[in-house]
Amino acid sequence: MEPLSKSLEENLDWLKSSFGNTADCYTKKIRIAGVECAICLMEGLGNLEKTWELLLKRIGIQPLLGMNGEKLFSYIMEKSDYPTDKMPVESREDLVFRLTAGMTVILLDGCNKGFSLTTQAMAYRSVSAPSTEGNVRGSQEGFTELVRVNVSLIRRLIRTTDLCVEYAQLGQRTRTEYALCYNQKLVPPKLLEETKEKLKKAELPFLLDSAYLIPFLRRGPFHLFSGMGNTERPAVAAAKLCEGKIIILVNGSPFALILPTFFAEHFESLDDYSTTALFASTIRLLKYTGFFLAILLPAVYVTAVRFLPEAVPYQLLTTIAKGEADTPFPITMEMLMVLVVLEIIREAGLRMPKQLGHSVSLVAAVIIGDTAVKAGIMSVPVIAVAAIAAIATYVIPSLYEQVTLLRFGFVLLGGYLGVAGLAAGLFVLVAMVCGDAQGYPYTYPIVPWDKGMVRDGIFRSSWKVLAKNDYSLRDIKQEDRH
Questions:
Q1: Strand 25-32 and strand 35-42: pairing?
Q2: Residue 398 phi, psi dihedral angles, 5° rounding
Q3: Fewer Cβ atoms within 10 A, N terminus or C terminus of the chain?
């Protein structure tokens, strides 16, 4: 790091040249106790009015005998009532970091150090309900785009000294701030050390979303399931921290990364812990059923029609034969066409302005669906099967990408290779699910079998049982790691 110069003019010239004489870089020379100083801040990030309120009452310090930049700096940091940040500004990199964080920096002539004032006034979206995680009960707060606000939301829920937050920067062109959050008594030291090492080695030109970090932290490039999760809810992040997991918050992103995340956790939700154990367990079983329906139902339908028509009930087979007789495409191609159309409709509804969302739904339901059947392009059974699979996908939104890719893959395997293709696909799926996630079995607590399977796995026990058998990552035996 390049240290600041003792010359105030040199520091200001460097600052102006570095930012290219940008209009929002505010500098103003003032005198404090007879020593020439300069106020530096970024307009829109720092509050100029608040800065002057802090300085006006103290700017008239009477000049002291023999006062110079270094003595004034020591006096302000140690003896004055200036509300300065505890860490001085010593380098040019630190100066840029403080300014872009919304702080006001005071530089002094004759001193190679400056001090900063907390005067942030950055505009940001207020705390509101999450848009991607729907829950009936529990907290309705969601993360915002400002990392410091997100940390405060977690701190409000975990009011102990165990919560530790470390800030760092990534992205050569953006120097984006991110926060590494963990419970220092529950997080496994090896997991924490490996995560820090991976983040240090991550090379990114810019960091604009927490998802940019997943390739550097995931299980491996050939794993469809990354072993990491995300959440918009501070309550979920707090619960994961209490299990010894690590939360990564990135400035500018309302999604927090959770690592490690096990396969079974994709079928859990915050509402599971606000309802009875029996109902929560039933809902989880329904989610597992929805997962297999979403990836296998279209493929099983295509395989049965092409290779095993004798396994289809006679009444249903008659309906299917009548529908296929009116369509010009083979069953496999027809199913793929319907799935592609459904994905196009979903993408259009997602990217279109909200005001046009109803129009997209109306066009999809009436024109594409009804007209395509009447025109003989698609058959009713194929559309019904694809629709059921698509709806089942939304039961597990955190696995939407994986489920969509698996659905297309299974249709191709089943449509062209039959039962053998489905069996091969299931074998590959099991192979992708198995393995480790940050040193822990990704299939925990299902495989290897653990009492957590019944306590809080596919099934959920009552809070009386959960309270007596608290859980953290450190409870997983060492031999269970890969």
A1: antiparallel
A2: -70, -15
A3: N
Q: What is the DSSP string of 258-326?
A: EES--GGGGG--GGGGTS-HHHHHHHHHHHHHHHHHHHHHHHHHHHHHHH-GGGS-HHHHHHHHHHHHT
**Residue ranges covered by each domain of the chain:** 8-117, 147-261, 277-433, 440-480
Strand order in the sheet with 229-231: 163-170, 176-183, 246-250, 256-259, 229-231
Burial class from Cβ neighbours inside 10 Å (0-12, 13-18, 19+) for residue 280 reads buried
- Is 257:271 a contact under the CB 8 Å cutoff? no
Name the token pair of 417.
């290779």
Q: What angle do CA 310, 316, 382 make, to 5 degrees?
A: 105
Is a pLDDT exceeding 70 seen at residue 357? Answer: no
Q: In what order do the strands lie in the sheet with 35-42?
A: 25-32, 35-42, 104-108, 114-117
What lies within 8 Å, CB to CB, of 29 at 6+ separation is: 8, 36, 37, 38
Q: How far apart are CA 438 and CA 436, in angstroms?
A: 6
Q: Does the structure show a pLDDT above 90 at 143?
A: yes
Hey, how many other C-beta atoms are within 10 angstroms of the C-beta on 59? Answer: 13
Closest CA to 213 of 221, 225, 204: 204
- Over residues 93-114, the mean pLDDT reads 90
Rounded CA gap, 300 and 388, in Å? 13
Q: Are 15 and 94 in contact (CB under 8 A)?
A: no
CA distance 65 to 71: 10
Tell me, what's the pLDDT at 481?
A: 43
- For residue 101, give Cα distances in angstroms to 55, 118, 423: 20, 9, 55
What is the predicted pLDDT for the residue at 459?
83
Phi-psi region of 158 (alpha: psi -120 to 50; beta: other; left: phi over 0): beta
CA angle 21, 24, 26 (to 5 degrees): 85
- Predicted confidence at residue 294, as pLDDT, reads 95
Distance CA 248, CA 151 (A): 10
376, amino acid identity? G
Phi and psi based region of residue 104 (left: phi greater than 0; alpha: psi -120 to 50; beta: remaining): beta
pLDDT digits (tens, 9 = 90+) for 418-476: 999 999 999 999 988 888 888 888 888 887 776 666 677 788 888 888 877 777 787 77
What is the spatial distance between Cα 12 and Cα 20, in angstroms, rounded to a whole number?
12
pTM reported for the whole predicted model = 0.84
